[in-house]
Amino acid sequence: MVGKVYEAAYDQERWFDAVTGLRDLFGGSRSCIVRISPQTLDAVASDLDPELISQKGVEALLRDPLAGASAGLPLGTVSHWPPTSDETEYRRRELWQDWLRPRDMYRGLACNLLASNGAHWLLDINRGVRQEAFGGHEIELLQKIVPHMLRAGQIGRQLEKTSALASAFSHLPFGVFLVNGHQQIAQMNEAAEAMLARPDSPLTLSEGTIVAANARDTQELQRLVIDTCSLRDGVMPGTGGTLLVPSDRQRSDLARLVLSVAPFIDARAYGLASERCAVIMVTEVARRIPDGFEMHLRELFGLTPAEARLATALASGRSLKEAAATSNITVKTGRTYLERIFSKTRTRQQSELVALLKSTEPLSGRR
Description:
This protein is α+β, with helices and mostly antiparallel strands. It has three domains: 2-167, Beta-Lactamase (2-Layer Sandwich), CATH 3.30.450; 171-284, PAS domain (Beta-Lactamase); 293-359, Winged helix-like DNA-binding domain superfamily/Winged helix DNA-binding domain (Arc Repressor Mutant, subunit A, Orthogonal Bundle), CATH 1.10.10. It is built from 14 helices and twelve strands. It has helices spanning 2-10, 15-25, 55-63, 65-71, 87-90, 94-100, 136-170, 190-197, 215-229, 293-301, 305-315, 320-326, 331-345, 350-359, and strands at 30-36, 41-45, 79-81, 107-116, 119-127, 175-179, 185-188, 203-206, 209-212, 241-245, 257-269, 272-284. It has a five-stranded antiparallel β-sheet with strand order 2-1-5-4-3. Helix 1 (2-10) packs antiparallel against helix 2, helix 10 (293-301) packs across helix 11 and helix 12 packs across helix 13 (331-345). The longest helix has 35 residues, at 136-170. It is elongated and about 85 Å long. The mean pLDDT is 87.
């Protein structure tokens, strides 16, 4: 049973198998893990019962005092269920008569597994009217399993967060490499893959290791990564740094990239630090203004379409005269728009405005 619980920690679809296993282990009529919030209810149940988790069934449960009582159960402590001193009164209520009794959910065991954001996750194992009530030895057995269920829940939540982080990295518009101390790539996002595939890229892969176009840049990158990932007397001293590649200005045929190396995670063995990984973030120097930048400026600063068009042209490096021509307006009109843009962005001169606009480039979206 504990094995099934940990399988579910790494594969959320397997909680059905774990819940069904608990029902069978305890000889129950049904078992479930139900998430109860003040407005909603959802469940992983051993027995498929769409009617019970329909809107009507959810409303019946949320109306009953039982829902509030379940929230008060201590986390990780197994209790008899339902926790009511007046069983006769409980069995007169709508929830019992119309919903639980027809499903032979007569008596059971319950335990709260998690409480978060006003909701709680309740483990519930039921037996039918013709079965014996759960005894002390069954409470003791379930109490031995519950700590593993609590840990499995923590593992599952952490994996979901890790997966979400990896997904976020994959959609960033700049390159992200995760490497070890030997510059060997553990993971990279789509933008990083696209950079390596470009014919003018100053970075290539050699046996899984990042290599720059010239030996000097490769050595400097290696120094930054080694320093960032170093482990000296149990202390991780490296903080990383920044590198422009290629550093050789004569290589005009290659794209120029800024590489920022920083500590990312510390791998551990038996609770002790064993290796640090580094993240290399890569952006292109003098890259083009991204698609949708005009709309971005309109929403951010309240610019009109004409003002946003002029501001975008200025941010791309054009002079006011060039930007006005691009926008099909006179220089005089361009100056009028520019004064309005200064006012809305709280800037005073064109260089300050361009610096501000470039700093607001959104991270969403990819070329």
